[in-house]
Design a protein that fits this description.
heterodimer; A: 54% helix; elongated; B: 235 residues; alpha/beta; 4-stranded antiparallel sheet; 37% helix
């Protein structure tokens, strides 16, 4: 029988206290795991989504971040409109390889309806770099027909199979009045794990056919857009083009999506993550203190047990190690429970995160899990030090007397 | 290898001028143990008698190395127990000594098999795996069908047999038994004592047994009487 087995037997003798402490440590570990993997997945997803366009042209007086969130992530209202002429000027710029216009303002059963051109499907890609246009079930829409291409999640949750007809509702939130126009679904995008999975795409000209979206007499030049996504000929042109459009474009502002996402992650997400990390750290710390107090308190009733172990030949160092091991084994149990709970929770949250925010929660157990487990076991060992020192010093002979 | 030969041929226990003092509440010091000499050959069985306070239990604790001696020498299996560090005494105790307590001192939550295996945890590794040795020892004390019983599921007599198996499973040089039958009724005490003495004889272990029970002492042709401090002062 080795000391680890002996430590386990010691914990087994206190099943309720062991189970409750392990559960507490498990909850703290699970929280830490979810926070870490959730943060990593959010960063990955946002950066992947922001990678599609080098620049966005957004409404002049709107929020740059709002434009990025609305155009690339479909999670906010468009920040206003910009004139068609801005799109024309950008398209004519020799530095621009592709310009993708976006007009938004309607939804289908909670999924954002996006008026755009075929360039959208050629320009944007998934995390592996494969264009959206690849692997479409059916086909892409005709540029001016009342046809729709839908993201994989929108197709599944909205019941939009090939040949289905849809009518959009006014506004970016559910509950808006339904428009009369009908679109026929001709294509379904493959799952990409990006916000594109949640959207419904229609040809830009048909967006203006929706009642109230443009005056009946308007010419294309009078129409307005929510944003324009730009892919430049080379990445190094980004900053120069940004500066030029910032100073020279009267009704639109250039936005660097990657910078805005970084600002969002650093300014909003990172502090939130810090708070959650702090909370999970606090939970683990309280769990560690619980182990310390629990082990320390049980020592009073374990003096005879320690004396018997010593009488059987255990050295003080054995007693010290045994008690430290009890803390470690307890935390190992809690940590393993936490990993199971954490990954279970991530798996349960994954569909919701993908559907609501386009964030793919891919939590493959790896190095982080190993470090977390190691840290938690270390916490248990540290919590056992003080009780172990007391156990180390427990007198033997006096605790072996029948009345002791 | 002369040293090894000496150790193997040495008596199980050799005591010379052993003394132990305790601080008393009045600030003085009282000699609770005074034993000029004692030697047990391998396999020999000796009873220690004396009234309460004469130092019987203290003698066992000092021989086991649980308490340091204040004077004199103790050798167990040819190796000095006195004059060594606490850790060294622990090692020597693990190698040579098995102990049977009056109150059994079985740990709640451990099965009989785990209890006996625990008794060998701190011994140097022997040829036989601890679990198998524990199984054999429990079979020898008649508990082969109670291997997985907890202390609370055993009678007091069975508990003491588990304690005997724990002390002897590792084939120690010396078994120390402190009033091993005091918690048992007469019939069980007799059976327990018979088991302890015969098991020691089979394993070649010397037995130093403390008791003040005449029915127990009758079984031991050789006895050592310890005197109270007041008797020693008057002598």
């Amino acid at each position: 029988m080795n000391l680890v087995t002996l430590a386990w037997l010691g914990l087994r003798r206190r099943p309720l206290a062991t189970a409750l402490t392990a559960l507490y440590i498990g909850l703290g570990s699970a929280l830490a795991l979810v926070v870490w993997h959730g943060h990593a997945a959010t960063q990955r997803s946002f950066r992947d989504a922001a990678r599609g366009h080098d620049l966005l042209l957004a409404p002049k007086n709107g929020s740059a971040l709002q434009s990025v969130l609305a155009t690339l992530f479909f999670v906010d209202d468009p920040a206003g409109t910009l004139p068609w002429s801005a799109y024309e000027r950008a398209r004519a710029d020799v530095r621009v390889r592709s310009a993708v216009p976006y007009a938004m303002g309607d939804t289908y059963r909670g999924h954002r309806v996006v008026g755009t051109t075929l360039a959208h499907f050629e320009t944007l890609s998934d995390a592996s770099g494969r264009p959206l246009a690849d692997g479409v079930t059916g086909r892409l829409f005709e540029p001016e027909a009342f046809e729709a291409v839908v993201g994989s999640l929108a197709a599944r949750t909205g019941g939009l199979g090939l040949g289905a007809e849809l009518q959009v509702s006014h506004g970016t939130r559910e509950g808006g009045a339904q428009h009369a126009e009908r679109w026929k679904v001709v294509g379904v995008l493959r799952p990409t794990g990006t916000p594109q999975d949640r959207a419904v795409f229609i040809p830009l000209p048909t967006f203006y056919e929706i009642e109230g979206h443009a005056p009946a007499t308007s010419t294309p030049g009078e129409r307005r857009l929510s944003a324009v996504g730009l892919r430049l000929g080379a990445p190094h042109l980004r900053l120069a083009a940004y500066a030029e459009w910032r100073d020279g474009e009267p009704e639109a502002q250039p936005v660097l999506p990657a910078d805005e996402v970084l600002r969002l992650l650093d300014g909003v997400v990172a502090p939130l993550v810090k708070v959650l990390e702090g909370v999970s750290g606090l939970v683990l710390l309280v769990g560690g203190l619980g182990i310390l107090v629990g082990l320390y308190n049980t020592l009073q009733g374990r003096r005879r047990e320690i004396a018997v172990l010593r009488a059987l030949g255990a050295r003080p160092a054995h007693i010290f190690t045994l008690i430290v091991l009890e803390g470690s084994v307890l935390c190992l149990l809690g940590g393993l429970l936490g990993l199971a709970l954490g990954h279970g929770l991530l798996a349960a949250l994954a569909p919701w995160a993908l559907a609501s925010y386009g964030v793919r929660l891919e939590a493959v157990p790896g190095l982080v899990d190993a470090w977390l487990l190691l840290g938690v076991v270390g916490l248990g060992a540290a919590a056992g030090l003080l009780p172990a020192w007391r156990g180390y010093r427990t007198p033997v002979a006096s605790n072996l007397a029948p009345g002791a | 290898m002369p040293a090894a030969v000496d150790t193997l041929r040495a008596p199980a226990l050799r005591i010379r001028g052993l003394s132990r003092w305790f601080d008393d509440p009045e600030g003085g010091r009282t000699q609770v143990l005074d034993l000029p000499s004692l030697e047990l050959a391998r396999g020999e069985q000796v009873a220690v008698t004396g009234e309460s306070g004469s130092g019987k239990t203290t003698l066992l604790h000092v021989v086991a190395g649980l308490l340091p001696a204040d004077g004199g020498e103790v050798e167990v299996g040819g190796e000095a127990m006195t004059g060594r560090s606490e850790a060294a005494r622990d090692r020597l105790r693990a190698r040579h000594v098995g102990i049977v307590f009056q109150a059994f001192h079985l740990l709640p939550g451990l099965t009989a098999l785990e209890t006996v295996a625990l008794g060998m945890t701190f011994r140097p590794a022997s040829g036989q795996p601890a679990r198998q040795a524990a199984r054999d020892a429990l079979g020898r004390v008649g508990l082969g069908d109670r291997l997985h019983h907890l202390p609370a599921q055993l009678s007091t007599g069975q508990q003491q047999r588990v304690a005997i198996a724990r002390a002897l499973a590792g084939s120690p040089t010396l078994v120390l038994a402190d009033e091993p039958t005091a918690s048992l009724d007469a019939a069980r005490a007799e059976a327990c004592l018979a088991l302890l003495t015969s098991f020691c004889a089979e394993r070649g272990a010397a037995l130093l047994l403390v008791s003040h029970d005449p029915s127990v002492l009758r079984r031991f042709p050789r006895q050592v009487a310890l005197r109270l401090p007041s008797e020693r002062a008057g002598a």
